[in-house]
Design a protein that fits this description.
Layout lengths: L5 E4 L2 E7 L7 E4 L4 E4 L5 H19 L8 H16 L10
Parallel strand pairs: 2-4
Antiparallel strand pairs: 1-2, 3-4
Helix pairs in contact: 1-2
């Protein structure tokens, strides 16, 4: 899966872009509606950062206090990345 250039979470369209971030590899910019990912990351790591920041955005839009819990967000983002990228085989035909 390629990282999308924009996504919708509830009522917000979020722009996903690569850009420099001071002392971080990814950032959720709630004020400007963006996810920013360090451009120097290899694709596999950039995807993991994308899912991590997406979890931040989802929790932020839900007004959930877990949005600030990096341990929870990190684990959830990693599991989401694994679930959506680990199985790339064609669907089995179980007719």
């Amino acid at each position: 899966m390629k990282i999308p250039t924009r996504i919708q979470v509830i009522d917000s369209i979020i722009i996903v872009e690569k850009g420099e971030i001071a002392s971080a590899i990814g950032y959720s910019d709630y004020q400007n509606g963006k996810i920013i990912i360090d451009p120097s990351l290899p694709d596999s790591m950039a995807k993991e950062v994308f899912y991590h920041e997406l979890v931040h955005w989802i929790l932020f839009k839900m007004h959930n206090k877990l949005e600030a819990d990096e341990k929870f967000v990190g684990l959830f983002g990693s599991l989401l990345n694994q679930a959506l990228t680990s199985y790339n085989q064609p669907e089995d035909n179980h007719e």
